[in-house]
């Protein structure tokens, strides 16, 4: 049975952009599970599955509903144990939690404010109104003020990737010689940036950039099904 993945989109429903939804798209492909992307916009989330969800990603697997990217990954691992693993044992789950928190602080902490206008511009009118109101409340300033100075902050962001860069200088993936869910946590964030904005986050020679290219090629190139923003 095909799994339904509720996938956040903007005005163009062929360009899903949520980092959390991309984590699960990578994870489903990793598990070799058939799935269908169900495009949903910000202002539509509360209407899906009769109001069962307030956030995405969310999946329907037969009669089962599951929400939250990490919980979905755990569900897939427990429900389909004979398919390729997303975690290398219980310790890997704990380490993936650390990667998730690090990524939120280090990656999203810079990328979110820096690309907030790019996200806004990719939305339809109703979603733009919702997004501007909710994000300006969150940041305490206008979207324009929030994004300002991203070029000046870029080198500091790139420097903050040093631990990841050193790791990927010695191994192919965060998971070692093959990807695990920890890779998809980080790749989902860079995919969000790739899909939503042409702003160059990574230098071409960066080992992190080479790793991300490998992630885009995984599972038949699922990450490349959406062209980069230009």
Automatic annotation (TrEMBL):
Superkingdom of the organism of origin: Bacteria
InterPro entries, sorted: Glutathione-S-Trfase_C_sf, Glutathione_S-Trfase_N, GST_UstS-like_C, Thioredoxin-like_sf
Position of the signal peptide: none
GST N-terminal domain sequence ranges: 8-84
Name the UniProt record assigns to this protein: Glutathione S-transferase family protein
